[in-house]
Structures are given as C-alpha cells and as structure tokens.
Amino acid sequence: SSGINAEYGALSNLIEIPVTKDCVQSLNFVIVVDLSRPETIWTTLECLLAAIRQRVKKVLHELKVESPTAANNLVAGCLARYDADHPDRDSLDIIPLPITIIGSKYDVFQNFDSEKKKIISRTLRYVAHHHGAHLCFFSSKIETLVMRTRGLLGHLVFRTQLNKTTTTDHNKPIYMLAGMDAVSQFGAPPSSPGTRSMLDQWKQLYLSSFPQEAEAALPEDPTRDKKYNEAIVDSVRAQKHEELERFRKAQERKLKQKSLQ
C-alpha cells in the first residue's frame, strides 16, 4: 500500500546514515515487533528487513571494492552459524549482518488462544531462520524475560557469554538463536498450489489468519500534511530535518574525500 511504501522510503533514506562501509563490521540490527498486535507484525518485518537487506547489499559491495577480505570475512562469519551440513542452509536467504528480532509484550501474548500463538510463533521462527536472525520473546513485566533479553543484547554489544538454551514451545516465550533452528523442528506451512517459496507460503498462512492493518493513504511526505499542522511540533521537526540534512551532507563529503585519497 502507499502507506507501507512511504514508510519503506523513509527507512531506506534514514538507514543510510548509520549503515556505512566504515562501521558495518561492528553493526547489529534489532527489530522489535508487538506480539499483542499480530495484525501489524508481518508488514513491520517485511518493511524493515527489506530496507536492511537493500542497504547492507550496497554497503557490502562498497566494502568489497575497498577490502575484499573484510567483506568476505563478514559474510562468512554470519554463514558460519549454519553448519555445512545444516539441512536448510541452501534454501535460506541470510542477511549477512547480525539481526535480532524481539517480540515484545509477551505478557499480553501469553493469554492468546493456543492456536493463534502457534501460528505467530512458528511464522516468526521461520522468518528469523530464513534471514539468519535471533528470535527472542520479551516483556518488561516478566523479570526472567528482562534478564534473558538483557543477556542477549549484552552479548551483541559487549560479546559477553551467550545463553544457548533455546525455547521452542509456542505456549512459552520463544528463544531461538540464529543457526540453531530448522524447518524440521517446527514444520512447514500447509502446501499450496504453485511454485511459491516457503517464505511466501508462511506469508499466505499468516495473512489468512491475521489480515494486516489497512494502511491509510499517505502523502509522499506525511509530515507536510496540513491536516496535522501543529506550530510548535512543526518548528522542531523542521529544525531536526535541517540538522539531519546537514549531517547527511557532511557524511557524503567525508566519503567523497576518502575516495579521492
């Protein structure tokens, strides 16, 4: 829809600032989805993962020109999580940078009907598995989940010891690390006619169970919509936009100067 396209375009532009070839080797992506609102989960993941994949592909190409070894090592490090004999390795489409998907508001989700939890949990497991991401269900109201998620994030940032005890029961908070899951562990979606990929089959199953929220048609730049005029907010937004543009142009100049050296 136009709303999703607008959001995707904004993300694609914004992600260019932090994700560059100079820092890509130390980056981690963390995506948070709201488990209490399954009608938003698929579109959120689809939009964010597409923006990340597009930017990472471009930056890795730039890095490979400058340092083929560094680029190859980065890709190899992510693929190394999947053993050479992993049954799904050749069918996955791994994004070669560390990604963690966090399912928030588990305290609400745990009260869902068991069948709904099963579909959501299995779909998220496949999406994480397909893209080479960790998956962790979380609630700020459940101390054990706070500690577990803190440990995972601590590992990503500070390389602390990682808890490798996975949880796969859809009636419990899912915890699965990249490379440790397999389709054989959670099953394939119901087969459907045609030659669609397994990702498309999971999408069809999920959307048939949880139709996604209809996106309102948005203008190309929603912040300029006169229906939502607010003098103080608009003034601050305009200032921040100018600061962001100056920063972006400064970064572009730095990159050009480096390329000329």
Topology, please?
Layout: H1 2-14, E1 29-34, H2 38-66, H3 68-79, E2 99-104, H4 106-109, H5 114-131, E3 133-137, H6 143-158, E4 175-176, H7 183-186, H8 198-209, H9 231-260
Summarize this structure as a short list of keywords or feature phrases:
4 strands; 261 residues; single chain; alpha/beta
Would you write up a description of this structure?
With 261 residues, the protein is of the alpha/beta class. It is built from nine helices and four strands; from the N terminus they run αβααβααβαβααα. The chain has a four-stranded mixed beta sheet, with helices on one face. The relative contact order is 0.13. The model has no long low-confidence stretch (mean pLDDT 87).
**Separation of the first and last Cα atoms:** 44 Å
- How much β-strand is present in the residues? 5-15%
* Strand elements, count: 4
In the sheet with the most strands, the strands line up as: 1-2-3-4
Poorly predicted sequence stretches spanning 5 or more consecutive residues: none
Estimated helix fraction: 40-55%
Query: Helical stretch count?
Result: 9
Alpha-beta content class: alpha/beta
Q: Note the run of SSEs as H and E.
A: HEHHEHHEHEHHH
Structure at a glance:
This protein is of the alpha/beta class and 261 residues long. It contains 9 helices and 4 strands; from the N terminus they run αβααβααβαβααα. The protein has a 4-stranded mixed sheet, covered by helices on one side.
